[in-house]
Write a structure and sequence with these properties.
Helix content: 25-40%
CATH superfamily: Gcn5-related N-acetyltransferase (GNAT)
Distance between the termini: 42 Å
Number of helices: 5
CATH architecture: 3-Layer(aba) Sandwich
Strand order of the largest sheet: 1-2-3-4-5
Shape: globular
Structural class: alpha+beta
Order of helices and strands: EHHHEEEHEH
CATH class: Alpha Beta
CATH topology: Aminopeptidase
Number of strands: 5
Number of domains: 1
Strand content: 15-25%
Oligomer: single chain
Radius of gyration: 15 Å
């Protein structure tokens, strides 16, 4: 697939319903569906993110078919680092991986964050996602870290 066949854009609220199904790309092994996953709640959250000034949902489409997406949020403003932006989800359809779509989405997330005053962009990724980690390392992160989380 050559770049002219791809369209990149920010999602509109009415894109939310078809985006929910694309989250299955994240749930395939080595991933898993979160126990609290609710497609209706996810759809509402995507609608809010796509209409918020503090978030965006970037889409990659090929002839109208969704082939990738990335959710990005302005996050905390820590004393040490300044405004942070957070990539919460970045996924490419399995049939369209290794074609530069993930890189274009990550670059889009960086640009979106930069234009909103973010000083850095972060994401976390489960240990089992070794393929994704190879991609992130190729993209030259400024640092890496271990992340801990708790379901509440």
């Amino acid at each position: 697939m050559s770049p002219p066949e791809l369209e990149f854009r920010s999602a509109a609220p009415d894109d939310a319903s078809r985006l929910v199904a694309a989250f299955d790309w994240l749930f395939e092994p080595p991933g898993s569906r979160p126990a609290q996953w609710d497609p209706l709640v996810a759809e509402e959250r995507l609608r809010r993110a796509s209409s918020s000034a503090a978030a965006t949902v970037l889409l990659a489409e090929h002839t109208g078919e969704l082939v990738g997406f990335c959710t990005v949020y302005l996050d905390i403003e820590p004393v040490r680092f300044g405004q942070r932006a957070w990539v919460e989800d970045l996924a490419v359809h399995p049939d369209h991986r290794s074609l530069g779509i993930g890189k274009a989405l990550l670059d889009g997330a960086k640009q979106w964050a930069r234009t909103r005053g973010a000083m850095h962009l972060e994401l976390d990724s489960a240990f089992a996602r070794t393929e994704a980690h190879r991609f992130y390392v190729r993209e030259g992160p400024s640092w890496d870290a271990v992340c801990f989380g708790w379901l509440l």
